[in-house]
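Subject: Sanity check before I submit

Could someone independently write out the C-alpha cells for this chain? I want to compare against mine line by line before I put it in a report. The sequence has 512 residues.
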Amino acid sequence: MFKKFNHQFVYKYPLIWNTKIIPFALIALVIHFVFFAIGYQNAVVSSVQTHSYYNQESNATTINLFAILISVLVFIIWCFLYFRNNAFKAFYPKSNSSLFKEWLLIVLFGLLNFSYALSSIFGANLQTRNTMPREIALEHCKTISKASVFLQGSYKEGNWIDSMVNGNYQRFERDSFSFEGKKYALKSLMNKNMESFPFFNSYQDSLMRLQVQRWMKENKKAEIATIFQDYFAISNTHQLKSNITPATWMELVYSQPEFTKYTNIGTTERELQYEYENSEVEYAVEAAAGEQDFATDTTSVTLKKVDGQMYYYSKYYVSQQVLVKYYTTIAASWENPLLDWDFIMVVLYLSFGVSLLVFSFKVTAARSWLIALISLGVVQIILGIGTLLINFPMTFPALNILLFVMLCIYFSIICIQKKGKKWSGIALNQILWLLPGILPMIYTTVMYLVKKHSGYNNRYNFQTKSKVEEFPKIDWFEENGMLLVFINLAIVVLIMFTFSEIIKKWRGIPEE
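---
Independent answer below. Compare away.
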C-alpha cells in the first residue's frame, strides 16, 4: 500500500517528493521541539543566590554547538537523498515555474534545518519572561536602582572637569560638585552612581537618580526608608543572604545634610581577590581618601584566606550582585524581542546561501560547479590583494560588482546566441552565489560615496559637541539597515522567479 502511494505521489507531486520536504519537515519540527525544551529548562533559575550564570551560558553555547552539528548531519543526509534522484529529473513534467518552486522548497528546508538554535534561544527567553510579569519586574528594578545609591559603588562626578575658556576646552581639578545650588564633596552619597537596567534609558535613570538626590537634600528620610524596606521585601522573596536590616542600613548610611559620613555596604558577602587587578591597592586608596576627606569607615572590608584563596569580606552587606544579575536578565528578556533580529538574519542568509549552492549544483554539472567554486575563490583572493594594494575602502565591493556585471553579460550572450553552453555553466554558478550579496555591496559603495561628497562625515563640530548639518535621508538609511537587509532577500526572490525561467531555457542549449 505504501509503495503504491509512493508511486502516485511521485507522479502527482514530483518536486515535493524529490526534495523530501515533507519527511524532513516533520523531522525538523521534532528537533525544534527538543531544542525548545532544552533551552527552556536551561534558563530555569532555581535559586537566585546560588545560580551560576556562567554555567547557564556555557550550557547555552554547548546547546548551540549541538544544534549546528545536528543541522550539518541532517543536511548531509538530505543532500544524499535529494541528489540520488537527480538522474530521474529529466522524466518529470516541467512547468515554467518548476525550477523556482524547487528552489523555494530548498530554501524552506534550509530555514527549518538551520534554525534549531533559534528554538533553544526562544525557549530560554520565553522561560525568563514567564518568571515574572513585566510590571512587577519593572517596579522591582526601580527599587533596586534607587537602593544602589546607598551601596558600595562608583561616583558620577570626577575630580576633573572640562570648561570652555576663550573658545577652547580646558581641564580643571576640583574636590566638590554642585547640585541645585549647593556644593557636595565628590565622595558624598549625593554623587553616587545608580544601577541601571535594560528597562530604563539614560534619561529615565537620571530622573530616578534626581528623585533620590532631592529626597536626601530635602531630608525626606521616610521615602528612603521605604526604598530600604521594599528592597528587603524583594531580597526576602528570593531568600537572599544579608547581615543588616532596613533600620540598620539607614543608621549606617544616612548622614544628612552632607552625606559624607557613611559606612560602605557591600554588594556581596565576599569577593575573590584577583592579584592582577591590584585589589589591595584599590581598597587602600579608597580608605586613605576616606580618612583625608571625611571620617568614613575604613574597616568595612577584611581580607581572609579560605581554602588557599584570598577573599574580601564585607562587614555589612546585601546580596546586590546576584539580584542585579537576575533582574538584568529578566528586564532584557522583556525589552528585547523573543528572537533577536540578528540571529534571524543569519539563519535567513545562511538558508538562502546554501539553497543557491544546492540549486546551482542541481541545474549545472558537477564539473562546472567545482570549477566555479575554485575559480571564484581564487578571484576573491586576488581581489582582496588588489584592495590592499589600492588602499581604497570600496575597492573590494566595487570589483565584485564589476565581476557580477561581466558574468551576467557573458551568460546573456550565451543565452541569446544559443550556439553552445561553453563556460556559461561556471558563470551561472558564480552569478547565483554572488546574487544575495550584490545589492548590499552596491548599497555600501553608494553610501560611502554619498557620505564622502555630501559632507556627512563632517557633520559634527567636536569643539562645540554639536551637529553642524542634518542629513535626514542618510540617517534614515543608517537607522533602517535591518529593514534593507530583508528587502534585499525579497528582491533576490523576485529575481530568482524570473531567472529560473531563463535557467530552464538555458538548460536546453547544447553543450557545444
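---
OP: Matches mine. For the report I'm noting this point. The mean pLDDT is 85.
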